[in-house]
Automatic annotation (TrEMBL):
Keywords noted in UniProt: FAD, Flavoprotein, Membrane, Mitochondrion, Mitochondrion inner membrane, NAD, Oxidoreductase
Similarity-based family: Belongs to the NADH dehydrogenase family.
Protein's name according to its UniProt entry: FAD/NAD(P)-binding domain-containing protein
GO cellular component terms attached to this protein's record: mitochondrial inner membrane
Subcellular location per the Swiss-Prot or TrEMBL entry: Mitochondrion inner membrane
Annotated InterPro entries: FAD/NAD-bd_sf, FAD/NAD-binding_dom, NDH-2
Major site of localization recorded for this protein: mitochondrion
This protein's record includes keyword Membrane: yes
Catalytic activity: a ubiquinone + NADH + H(+) = a ubiquinol + NAD(+)
Domain of life: Eukaryota
Domain FAD/NAD(P)-binding: 20-343
Record-level Gene Ontology MF annotations: NADH dehydrogenase activity
């Protein structure tokens, strides 16, 4: 039931079934709501994104190899018995067991409705956001690779740069700038996208813009001394060879200190002209997670510390999974596979009768 309350909407807690409030719509949350038993509990999902996105294919959508809709599944389709609210969760009140949210959409006047959702069990699965490390100009001038809207922007920008470079009167210097594509970050996303982009530009676009090919460059910048540092050295070397074979210029041991609307500035003063800059330098906690960590004395890292049953240390009836969490003394890699398995595990745990009132490391684990 909904009722007007203090200018917003308040969702009442049911007396019949416990309310499981899931924050997020990524790999962990999506897996959870596919498995959870909605006959045993009322499930509400709050997320600014009303769909699940198959993120490993994002680089392919940016160049048009795969269409966007192939990656998406609406939350309301994932489980038709789950309630969904398109909003940002902003304030967690662990004492009253409520979450204050604000709608993503706004009225013509600019007013964004706010509302409060009470819960019996809270599941935090909001993932992480792109880390900029405070480098000036990154947010304003770089593209990212986290959401479908990011790849839409990249795809549009790629087309614009080639069309501008093809116009009569465009100088050679400007063509070289427009057709220099810079990827910052030598992790899995940066490596995959730079390779995908180079293949696309030198294969597909060669037929459309043959006269522009001499001006095209794809550069991958990495601050560490090698790429894919979190993987086996043999795999990293193989990836390095493959990228170089496709024409990607790889520079390791370089640090970006500023990004302007036309140049990437490196430590030491070197400036690189670019037409498109994609930033893929790891992740950082979202504000909601940071505020929750700050409110719990038992928490002291950048991720929510959880026990093996995914219960947040220091909180009651709060569980966390996916990239925003880390199991104490048993960290798992931040991959889609791990997040999906955690989501399914947590749903099965709730289905088997998770006991409300349990806290991480403070009481007997749920059966």
């Amino acid at each position: 039931d909904d009722l007007a309350s203090q200018g917003g909407v308040q969702v009442r807690r049911s007396n019949k079934k416990p309310v499981v409030l899931v924050l997020g719509s990524g790999w962990a949350a999506h897996s959870c709501i596919k498995v959870i038993d909605t006959d045993a509990c009322d499930v509400i999902v709050v997320s600014p994104r009303n769909h699940f996105c198959f993120t490993p294919m994002l680089p392919s959508t940016a160049v048009g190899t795969v269409e966007f809709r192939s990656l998406l599944e609406p939350i309301r389709v994932s489980n038709e018995f789950v309630g969904y609210l398109e909003a940002d969760a902003e304030i967690l009140d662990l004492e009253s067991k409520t979450v204050t949210c604000s709608a993503v959409g706004a009225y013509e006047s600019g007013y964004r409705p706010n509302f409060t959702v009470p819960y019996d069990m809270l599941v935090v699965a909001v993932g992480e956001q792109s880390a900029t490390f405070g480098v000036p100009g990154v947010t304003e001038h770089c593209s990212f690779m986290k959401e479908v809207r990011d790849t839409v922007k990249i795809r549009r920008k790629l087309g614009e740069t080639f069309e501008l470079a093809a116009l009569p009167g465009t100088s050679e210097e400007e063509r070289r700038r427009l057709l220099h594509f810079v990827v910052v970050g030598g992790g899995p996303t940066g490596v995959e996208f730079s390779g995908t982009l180079s293949d696309y530009v030198r294969s597909d676009l060669r037929r459309k813009y043959p006269l522009l090919m001499p001006y095209v460059r794809v550069s991958l910048l990495q601050s560490a001394q090698g790429i894919l540092t979190q993987f086996d050295s043999g795999l990293a070397r193989r990836a390095l060879d493959d990228l170089q074979r496709t024409g990607v210029e790889i520079r390791t041991g370089v640090r970006v200190i500023q990004v302007t609307d036309r140049q990437v500035v490196l430590k030491g003063g070197e400036r690189m002209d670019y037409g498109l800059c994609v930033w893929s330098c790891g992740n950082a906690p979202r504000p909601l997670v940071k505020s929750l960590i700050d409110s719990l004395p038992e928490q002291n890292g950048s991720k929510l510390a959880v026990d093996p049953f995914l219960r947040v240390i220091g909180a009651t009836d709060v569980l966390a999974m996916g990239d925003c969490s880390a199991i104490v003394n048993a960290p798992l890699p931040a991959t889609a596979q791990v997040a999906a398995q955690q989501g399914s595990y947590l749903a099965h745990m709730i289905n088997k009768g998770y006991v409300i009132g349990t806290g991480g490391m403070d009481s007997v684990p749920p059966a």
